[in-house]
Specification:
two-stranded antiparallel sheet, flat, mainly alpha, 319 residues
Length: 319
């Protein structure tokens, strides 16, 4: 075979190899495109199911609450008493709302300083060994069942508060606030620590190079830079506290009165629904009143989450 013939054969073989590689690459590309479209579809389906589920829960809640609004018993919703089995029944929401607010407020007052302080310590002060030991331990606390925390509040905190303040019972709003603070603390600490740790180290280095002390840099630079994340952590802690059921059912005394101090028994909205829904006759005014309580709780939680989102966005704009 002539030299020209050999070159032609080699050239043809190279062309065939290129076409084969091109077809293989094109096939892989089509597989990747199909995989990406399927992944996008699954993600969209997940988001769609989540949104539709929330909407259906919202509609179901308000559908079951509406019948009470057309009943004369609706006039008692603004009463200061919750007497659902009296004759006539009184479905005053004010003591339940007040009970939920005072317990949640107490829990936040206790948990926010402790949680944010612990987050600053873990992110900026603690050694790596201490941080790697304490943070997982704090995050494990978030997984403790609420009934276990309720047992702790019932067996330890309630007798302690009863003895300290010389009360007839230790099942008070203060006991509920402390136990809820224990439950909100891991959420606030963990998310705040992540927010503080994500602040670029050059912020600290620039502050120190300008003559600031370590604490001045943390106070005036690091914490303000992480404020949006800290705010989100606090709002999530509030959401955890106001939505908790079992713990407050066990340690707050469940008295349907408007509290004027933390040292009296209270009754929260979540505890009322949990305690009475299993025994109420379906289709009765009491049954619909509990759905009204659930609708009010839903709106309060929705407003808290909305405010958290707005505050977080504003903080990011400022940064």
């Amino acid at each position: 075979m002539s030299p020209n013939g050999e070159n032609t054969a080699i050239t043809n073989e190279i062309i065939m190899c290129k076409e084969s590689l091109s077809k293989s690459a094109s096939k892989k590309r089509r597989i990747w495109d199909i995989t990406e479209k399927m992944t996008e579809g699954l993600l969209f389906l997940s988001a769609f199911i989540g949104v539709v589920t929330i909407i259906l829960i919202f509609l179901f809640l308000f559908k079951e609450a509406i019948p009470l609004m057309a009943d004369p018993a609706a006039n008692t919703l603004t009463s200061k008493n919750w007497y659902p089995i009296s004759n006539p029944p009184v479905f005053g929401l004010l003591p339940l709302i007040a009970g939920s607010i005072i317990v949640t407020f107490g829990a936040i007052v206790i948990s926010v300083p402790l949680g944010v302080g612990a987050a600053i310590y873990l992110a900026m002060v603690a050694s790596p060994v201490v941080r790697e030991t304490l943070k997982p331990a704090i995050e494990v606390l978030a997984g403790i069942p609420s009934v276990v925390v309720g047992f702790f509040g019932l067996a330890v905190l309630a007798p302690l508060i009863k003895d300290i303040f010389n009360l007839p019972t230790g099942l008070t709003a203060l006991t509920g606030a402390i136990t809820l603070a224990l439950m909100a603390l891991p959420t606030i600490t963990s998310i705040s620590e992540d927010a503080i740790s994500s602040v670029p180290r050059r912020y600290m280095e620039a502050s120190l190079s300008l003559g600031a002390t370590r604490w001045q840099a943390i106070k005036t630079v690091i914490v303000p830079a992480a404020l949006s994340g800290i705010t989100a952590a606090i709002m999530l802690g509030i959401g955890r506290a106001i939505g908790e059921t079992m713990t407050v059912l066990m340690v707050t005394g469940n008295a349907g009165i408007i509290p004027d101090t933390f040292l009296v028994p209270v009754r929260t909205m979540t505890a009322t629904i949990a305690a009475e829904m299993g025994e109420v006759a379906r289709g009765s005014d009491h049954y619909y009143a509990l759905f009204v309580v659930g609708a009010v709780l839903f709106l309060m939680t929705f407003v808290i989450n909305l405010v958290a989102d707005i505050v977080s966005r504003r903080m990011k704009e400022v940064e």
